[in-house]
């Protein structure tokens, strides 16, 4: 009977760990999805602003092929470099 108790404890521990991993993965995916949604809203607002501020004479029909995404103007591009540059810059001016 002692072996059965040990087996149940190990099974419960494995199930708890598996539930923890699934929950952690679900939170990670939800955060990634929210970041992608925020980036999509940012890019669409930027496109709408630039297209609405253009004069009517400058507007051209859209290109037949899709243009690649402009990753360099993304809100999330290079934030680590800006953060590190800001930290290093503040240390230099002391």
Describe the structure concisely.
The protein has 94 residues and is mainly alpha-helical. The chain has helices at residues 2-53, 79-92. Helix content is 70%, strand content 0%.
What Rg is obtained from the alpha carbons, in whole angstroms?
25 Å
Structural class: mainly alpha
Spans of at least 5 consecutive residues with low confidence:
none
In N-to-C order, the SSE pattern is HH
Largest pleated sheet: none
> How many E-type strands?
0
Would you tell me the overall average pLDDT? 76
Anisotropy-based shape: rod-shaped
Helical percent range? over 70%
Number of domains: 1
Q: Provide a count of the helices.
A: 2
β-sheet strand percentage: under 5%
Head-to-tail CA distance between termini: 70 Å
